[in-house]
Specification:
about 325 residues, alpha/beta, FAD/NAD(P)-binding domain, 2 domains, 5-stranded parallel beta sheet, 4-stranded parallel beta sheet, 21 strands, about 25% strand
Length: about 325
Amino acid sequence: MARRNGRKQIVVLGGGSGGVVAATNLGRKIGERHDVILIDKRPDHIFMPAFLFVMIGERQPHDIRRSLKQLEKRNIKFIQSEVLGIDPDRQQVELQNHKIDYDYLIVSLGMQVRPDLIPGFAETSINPWELDGAVRLRDALASFNGGRIVVGVPLGPYRCPPAPYETQWLLDSYFKKRGIRDRVQIEYFTRDPEPTGEHRNPGVWMDDESRRRNIKQHYEFVVRSIDPKSKVVSGLYGYKISYDLLVMVPPHRPAQALLDCGLAETENGIRVDYETLRTKWDNVYAIGDCADMPASKAGGVAHQEADMVAHNLAVEITGKGRPVDLSLHTI
């Protein structure tokens, strides 16, 4: 839908890594002649990869947040509002108080955590997959003077697959610095099978590194429930793991608005073309964690996807340059 003076309206949903990079690139390239709008329910961009450093007290929450209003100097309009729905037929996004039209839509709404999907999870696991959880875990660790800490992974997708290993290693280093590592037992469980192959294989290397740090690994452990009173994680086939402090990745699912409007058709998110990140809806793209892609749900992936989509949209709108296909550099 061409607008007055030929201006196009490009709407970016989500102020995480992918959304900020896409909007910034578009603002710089075409923001003076076209309208680039970023929408997020929060006023700030929060740098999620730093949550683990908040967990061990090496960062404070104010260190890892920046106001999304700052993007306005890049020819981007910022709207703080929760996204309630998307109508790709009308090319409209429903916000809390109004609807906004788009000519092109980039969806980068990430994943929501769903602790309710595992009985007992919400009552017991303190985890750094959200900022408030990282702060609570920091306080819990400060008063932890010995016992068993269990780090765990549920079924389904989740943000940043290497992070559970990073969590183990940071905890190992944290308690060594406190001089009480010999009083702390760290264990890890995952639904994945034990990795095999050469040491240079990432999975094998991470397993070796955990074992080198005297962290016990439990493979093919599928969580069914957690008993907060007895402090036991129960898995399939009667397997159980006890803990004093549980640091488990919460189950993740696509953002609720994407489920409600039908754009997210799988638990991994919105189906996309792997080379262009186009969806089956006209002029709608999905990037980052909410895209159903055979790649890690991580900030580095979202950044690369955002670069490519922004470039291709600028080419399509201006008629200058050549489009490119996605070429990810990741493990």
